[in-house]
Amino acid sequence: MTAQHSRNDDGIAPVIPLDAVRHDDPPPRSRLERGVASGLAFLRRRLAGEYEVDEFGFDPELNETVLLPIARALYEHWFRVEVRGTENIPDGGALVVANHSGTIPLDALMLTVAVHDATGRDLRLLGADLVYEMPVLGHLSRKAGHTLACRADATRLLDGGNLVGVFPEGFKGVGKPFAERYRLQRFGRGGFVETALRTGAPLVPVAIVGAEEIYPKIAELPLLARLLGVPYFPVTPTFPWFGPAGLLPLPSRWLIQVGEPIPLDDYGPGDADDAMTVFNLTDQVRETVQQMVYDTRLLRGPAFL
Which residues pair with 203 in a beta bridge? Predict the structure, then answer.
């Protein structure tokens, strides 16, 4: 047996087996070291192309590692979002229908974080053409799992069992003046209802309260909007007067309320071709969301306190 020798006080060197000598475990790595190692591993996979995207360009790893954490920082520490009723989100495919506001559509990002963190599922948003005409924004939107607001894409996502998010007010909702806050605009032509009827996906109403106060729009500059090719160019109490600093959103408190699914059991795919049925259901969903917005605003209370 191999041994280690040392001398005691009597000058005798006892024999100590090496397997009896205790070897201390290496100290655990710090949180910073773990973060650096994880980040380097992530970069290696990205550079090597060892990641997957789906047919829409959704990159789950990038979304989970980079995009969602950035949005979550605003969600938790700036807007202090509270969400209720996520138990109303059914399993399988469903169409989540929400009000839209805020001058810059941060409500869409906050809703994706709320659904993801509460259910572990990704909310696939349907966006306007303008979003995907912008090189950086369009690319990141697809990486985050979103796609164009068209019937074909929505149907494929719902048939695949995904949660799909839609904001039927569009730019008219997100760009309305502060004087009209929390008053829902027209819900388009009801295309989302047609899609729900054809796929049998339930309609889940959602009220978002808090976004109206982040960039209070007091005016707009139509000529500049036309020159830039955007629906509107807003004027707020801080923008454009304070330059880039004016783009910092005000830290309003948010409350997101998820309502019970609106039943479509009495309808079938053929009802999607009935204009009156589509109109009535669209109006029903709009009125449901509007009432939820009123109720949720009362529950939220003051915007900033």
Answer: 95, 262
